[in-house]
Amino acid sequence: MGISDRPDLQVPLFLVFLVIYTLTAAGNLGIITLTTVDSRLQTPMYFFLRHLAVINLGNSTVIAPKMLVNFLVSKKTTLYYECATQLGGFLVFIVAEIFILAVMAYDRYVAICNPLLYMVVVSRQVCLLLVSLTYFFSFFTAIVVTPCVFSVSYCSSNVINHFYCDNVPLLALSCSDTYLPETVVFFFSGTNLFFSMTIVLIFYFNIILAILRIRSSEGRKKAFSTCASHMMAVTVFYGTLLFMYLQPRTNHSLDTDKMASVFYTLVIPMLNPVIYSFRNKDVKCALKDFHKKPCQRFNLT
What we know:
Blueprint: H1 10-37, H2 44-72, H3 80-113, H4 118-121, H5 124-149, H6 167-171, H7 179-212, H8 217-245, H9 254-278, H10 281-292, H11 294-297
């Protein structure tokens, strides 16, 4: 059905979300490029940031192209296996983002609370292990949940009240017992959110305590400002997921869910490059140098 079924809104919505997706792709591709080619951005923080950018770009790309096409066609359709593939891809990237945010919280905890041991504790091997575990859990969730959602019978309505294939509007169409897939979805979403949020809260609690022990008021203000931006993005991301998946089905409003989904599938991936990177002095300097000497940086001269 898309975001709205009003014909007069299709073209304006297409233009709005085309701009959002273009900015998302440009911002995250820029982060991936800069953190790959610039020698100053080879620390663990930027390693994790690069993977966050990959995940954000992947999440938006799974959703946005099909969504944009549907704004311009009179009959919005999706194939059965195309729908299953989109759900699987969405689960991979959304779960990966949940855990990469927790990994980044750990990275910031070590950097602020143990700065002298930072490069030892967060070594390259540790970075690779944490990122590998992130992708492992995300693929495992997708491999289990997607077949479970599509194992039920869909013999009733074939109108999906959403702008992409998500498990809640799909299960609402089933004419068979959905207790098992609903339980599986609730278990995975609840478990992933609980563990990742617990990790983030624990690390940021210790970060705040460490910041409060800083004697310089200017130093505390600067540190709090950095953490506030990060926590604002984390709060919006986790808040929308909790709203979507951890409320009883009887209270679900699919139209409201669609608005919440827009934030964590399209808006947050667009904002993350700004929140995490473009306010950073090192990234700004790397971006300026990249524009001045792109050939030398790629060793083409």
